[in-house]
Amino acid sequence: MIDGRRRVPPIRWALVGGGAGSAIGYIHRCAATRDRCFQLVAGAFDILPERGKQFGRELGLDSKRCYGTYKEMFEKESHRSDGIEAVTIATPNSSHFEICKAALESNLHVICEKPLCLSIEEAQYLQDLARERGRIVGVMFGYAGHQMIEQARQMVLNGEIGDIRIIKAEFAHGGCAKPSPEEPLQWRFNPEVAGPSFVLADLGVHPLYLIRAIVPTLKISRVSCVRQSVVRSRAPLEDNAFVTMEFDSGAVAFMWVSAVNTGSQHGLRIRIVGSEASIEWCAEDPNNLRYEPVGGPPVTLRRGFHGLYTSARAEDRISEGHSEGLFEAWANLYRRFANAIVGGDEGKMNEPSWYPDANDGAEAVRWVERCIESSEHNGAWVEMS
Ligand code: NAI
Fold first, then answer.
1. Which N-terminal residues, if any, form the signal peptide (predicted)?
2. So what's the ipTM on this one?
3. Ligand 1 atom with the shortest distance to the CA of 51
């Protein structure tokens, strides 16, 4: 169980984006600093330099380390003996590549929001650069940090589900069922900022990574996708899409991604059907995993209880019966990022060490590209490789 102790000092860490009023900055700051894995020492929090500096001061940072731009921050921090070692990028999509590139060129470890970037070429460039510089790139597919995802992964790897036959995944919320003037949503409908996709890149990459996390042996061979702009003003970006996937193993998957599923609050769920049993997990009920073996009886496995895999209990922060949530899931991933950065035996107390990395980020970018290509040909099958 995690109790906040750590044998190594926190990694000196900065945030780009995630400023005042942003959707995702607060959970990054809470998750990264939760177990003293990272310490926030600097930031370039906002597209508006003065507002970003003011925000940093209000977070209690040294005003000299509240920067107007990420370029200035990387430059000035590189001259300090106590300069930053890692940075999280929580800005809108189109800036991820250039900020990630600049961070790696400054020899920083990077945690990047999804999508990692907007094209396969960019993703390849970042992967090569990270390898060359010996730095990690983590991608914040945050739901994968829930302990019951680790439980599902272990059940699959240990044969409890049998051969994987079918996967049904969904991330279909109703948050954009009507046109909305809300500021954080607006850039998501603008291809110059969001990139070539709305819901595939914004939502679909999450269940896509859950498939990779739970069944790491599966490799997608081809995809077929159709997508729509249900709210017409959002064209050419889709706010709804259906994706069918085939895997090398013969398994098949179907995914529905949508922001116009009227009435649905969050709508992220995944069902994995094997020859021996099915398992099902829903982000709105993340402490539970449904297990349905052939012939029954169906069982709900619950976070924290004896009988779960050791690695699925190693990241608990409170005993069974209590609830943990998304903040803890993200903190789990931040622990794994930190352990990968620090190396050695820190964090090897049965805790999972896998995490969404540059390769996973790149595969998600490739998947979005292939889905768009398929949709442009009326859903024709497109090879993944
Ligand atoms: P937002 O629009 O709410 O906030 C963006 C923040 O970045 C703002 O503070 C803005 O001033 C700042 N910013 C923009 N450009 C900047 C620059 N060049 N330098 C410094 N700061 C800059 O956006 P939101 O919803 O927080 O999304 C940010 C990223 O996080 C997106 O890539 C999105 O896809 C991702 N995201 C990921 C989620 C997840 O579950 N992993 C959930 C929500 C968003």
1. none
2. 0.99
3. 11
